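Read as chain and fold; for instance:
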Amino acid sequence: DATSFLGKLRGKTGLDFDLPTEAQWEYACRAGTATALNSGKDWTGEKYCPNMNEVGRYYENGGEAGEGNSDSDASVGSAIVGSYRPNGWGLYDMHGNVWEWCLDWSNGSDYPGGEVTDPKGGSDGDRVHRGGAWYSGARYCRSAYRSQIYPSLRYLSLGFRLAWPVP
């Protein structure tokens, strides 16, 4: 459980680590870009997305027996951290590889319409996760795509990234 691990890490280090909020996660993923991918390129709308191949592991480039690989290919599944190029701020694997837990909760209707600065999700429901995973189609790995699941579920495709407040 990510929150349990973070509690132990805070206790050992005295540092205020946490999961990123959903807004923090997307801001970090985009690294100043406004496109679907943090490379500055867009999702092509296709199942197989050459632009996605540059930034992360997903269904069509190794997550499953997609285009160009087979079930017997050793690269099927998650990739070693840093296998793809980092975003403009040096962060690796924000697209694909594993879904990343966020601090926010979602009840399916959290956000009002229109632009919101640093939105906060609900206080109950399912926990938000972002980024897509190795088995996800390219559309689910976009910077803006959001999803949520029950927080006690455990999958090989779920992970987390540390957030630490800037002093």
Q: What stands out?
A: Strands lie at 99-106, 126-130, 146-149, 158-159. DSSP finds three helices and four strands in the chain.
